[in-house]
Amino acid sequence: MAALIRRKASPQSAPPKFKERRVFVRHLCQLPTSCQPVMGKYDTCWSGRILNISRGGVNVLMPRRFEPGTLLQIEIHFPADQDKEPHAVLARVVHANPKGPGHWSLGCAFPWAITEEDLRAMLAASESTLS
């Protein structure tokens, strides 16, 4: 008589959970910005809006697509304090996704983390634009 092997039915496994890879917490914001590539033939700045920011990067809504890998100089404007100079940071485009007609969502990473103090100043400026 042949041995009958029965396999125990495994319980339905839950779908794998999404693993967050970000090191820093993202903060929603609404800050006016302008940016331009660091290298290349462009001498034009494009205006946009920062949608979220962390110590490690930003998400910028722009009317122009930049290729992933492009190094940008991003100027963060402080509308509540017109005397304050824009804060310039470097960031590399990680992804560019269409966001409605004529707009692109650019996920950008800073080459090094910005300070907690700079992050708080930007978030405070964002709060003043929302009030």
Report on the structure:
Strand 1 (27-37) and strand 2 (46-53) form a beta hairpin. This protein has one helix spanning 116-130; strands spanning 27-37, 46-53, 57-62, 71-76, 87-98, 104-109. By secondary structure, the chain is mostly beta strands. It has one domain (27-130): predicted glycosyltransferase like domains (Thrombin, subunit H, Beta Barrel), CATH 2.40.10.220. It contains 1 helix and 6 strands. Helix content is 11%, strand content 37%.
List strands and helices in order, with pairings.
Elements (H helix, E strand, L loop, with lengths): L26 E11 L8 E8 L3 E6 L8 E6 L10 E12 L5 E6 L6 H15 L1
Antiparallel strand pairs: 1-2, 1-4, 2-3, 3-6, 4-5, 5-6
- What's the helix-strand series? EEEEEEH
Percent of residues in beta strands?
35-45%
Name of the top-level CATH class = Mainly Beta
User: How far apart are the first and last residues' alpha carbons, in Å?
Assistant: 81 Å
**What is the overall pLDDT average?**
81
CATH names the topology as Thrombin, subunit H
